[in-house]
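Deliverable D4.2, example record:
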Amino acid sequence: MCRQNMKHISPVILFLVFLNVVVFSNTLAAQNENVSDSDERISFENDLIPIFTKFGCNAGACHGSAAGRGEFKLSLFGGNPQADYAAIVRQIAGRRVNLIHPEKSLVILKPTAQTRHGGGRVLKEDSAHGDEAVQLLHDWIRQGARYETKRHLKYVDITPKKQIISNLKQTIHLKASAHFSDGTTEDVTRWTVFTPEDTSAIKINPAAAIAKLNRRGRHIIIARYLTEVIPIEFIAPLNETIDKSGNTNNAVEKTDAIIDSEIQKLLSTLRLPVSATADDDTFLRRVTLDLTGRLPTPENVNAFLTKTDTKKRETLVDTLLASEEFNVYWTLQLAKLFRVRSRDRNPQGAYAYHQWLSQQLRDGVGYDHIARSVILATGDSHQVGAANFYRTVEGPREQAELMSELFMGARLRCANCHNHPLDRWTQDDYHGLAAIFAKIENEQIVRLKPTGTVIHPVTREKAQLRIPGERFLSVDVVDGRRELADWLTDKENPYFAKAIVNRLWKAMMGRGLVEPVDDFRSTNPATHPNLLTALADDFITNGYDLRHTLRQIALSNAYARSANAIPQNRIDDRFYSHALKKPLAPEVLADAISDVLGVPDTYGAEPEGTRAVALIDPNTRSDALDILGRCSRQTSCETSISAADGLQRKLHLFNGDLLNARIGVPGSRLDKLITSGTLPMEIVREFYLAALSRHPTHKEQTFWQQHIDVDVSANAQRAILEDMVWSLLTCNEFVTNH
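Output generated by the structure prediction step:
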């Protein structure tokens, strides 16, 4: 208040203001004097934040939401203690804290429902530790409601961290110990939140910190104390013993050091027996589809089945990896991963990007060099394919999200509005990475834009460039992409190699070791963490070679197992005791239908005979691909909802033109076989080889012989054969890779 206005204020008012200040100061002084040396001071950060988390006050459904509740906002799970302190002590004229009468503070009256509270009574005297929480709040206010923190949390120990449970009636006592910077350790079990990943699988008594499993399997509990979130793993074997009866393959399996030893360890722990090794025809179809996106031809099937070479599977895999079909199909895989598509009806950029990815794959360029190239790219995006990385999404924040999901397998986007609730990522990480990409202009000519910035939502200032989870870059750095690329592709980076080998594993095995594949975090642990690490290390050692890792997987025992489950492993959907059936991707299924029918589909203005897996732009007109559920690539194809198993697809397969308009048309495979005078049962065998890559079983052959009557008219016989083809193309065996 300026001096000239002071003379207009009543002396009485000035005296009252002075008196209030004196009383308030004396109250604080008296309170501080009353705190004896033996009366331990309450730490707002270490003692009170865990209370707010324990009782859900700072959860997303309460005051921890983006907008808060009841005009009171706390940081999500206490991610910003200083902001929480300001909200409690300084907002609404300090009415939430009453230093003279602590018991009348709103921060106590509200959660104990002594005054109206939208969340009801949260701190109950008869609840687990509710009375202790109230006492801590009261003592903190009595001591002056200070923020002071003399020690900081270093880490939390959880016991047990991993445990095998043999008896489901067994109770598990959970314990959390906090280790602080001053060397002290404290039992914080009562303030630690234990949350089961699947509430139907695990029941937790929060009062006693006791867990009990409801069913067998591998289950995860998330423990949260302050900023630490720690997974706890419990395994209850799925069988009492391993029954190997009728499964002769178990005794002769060769164990691969990288893959099969780790798979077998967990299977043994879970007491899961493995299914038999897949037959040659099944293996041929599976690996050909996985590596080339195509069905093997009938000629290739017959040739492979007649070979007696003991290493014929290894030779097959090497041949497929060296083929042009591999380059075409895995370019599609990379194009989906990198979200290659045309922008504003302008296909030049998508074409350049697709061709560049194809050339990298054809030349065997290491995945680390591919990542560095796109991150450091500049130039005309119509000519410099890698530059289209910066044309994929609209702004720097979206670019940060794309980069983290693509190259780190991490959902950094969860740290946009608040620190990630289940991971280490902070708002500084999110907006600091976005600040790096803000320096890039994402027009047709991708170039450096030194003036580009993003505003940090907390500080309301320009975000400082930051390597996520690591360090801020110097304020003198204009283009932070080189530091980012160096950090990302460093051999010690904990995310980069694991993210891509996990995707390769899913492409071959049907499920990632970490699932979803773009959600790497400590609270979403891999089913086989040692295997993931071993695959990543091997990938790095071998020059980040995609083909090398695909070969390792394709030649493992785990990959070669039959998809036919046995009673003892039927419920296994993630431990690889048997192969998982994978729906064919829309592009692969479309090509498979065309190959079997011998009638190519048409795609927009593309030349006749163009394969769906070779299409560059997902916007290319195709009713068939739309029906089959292709991904638009506007968002991640890994997380978007697909129509691959939807009702629309099934209806079109059963009764639409997708099949019916092409099965017996002139020039089709069926028409040519009938016209050439091929015997009906030979036609049946030909289509089994073309569609299912195997000969019909004795039962199937008998069935068709009974239904194909050579004495009926040619038209009737043709109709039966058309029905036979239709039945093959709509059966589950055809539309899945098994």
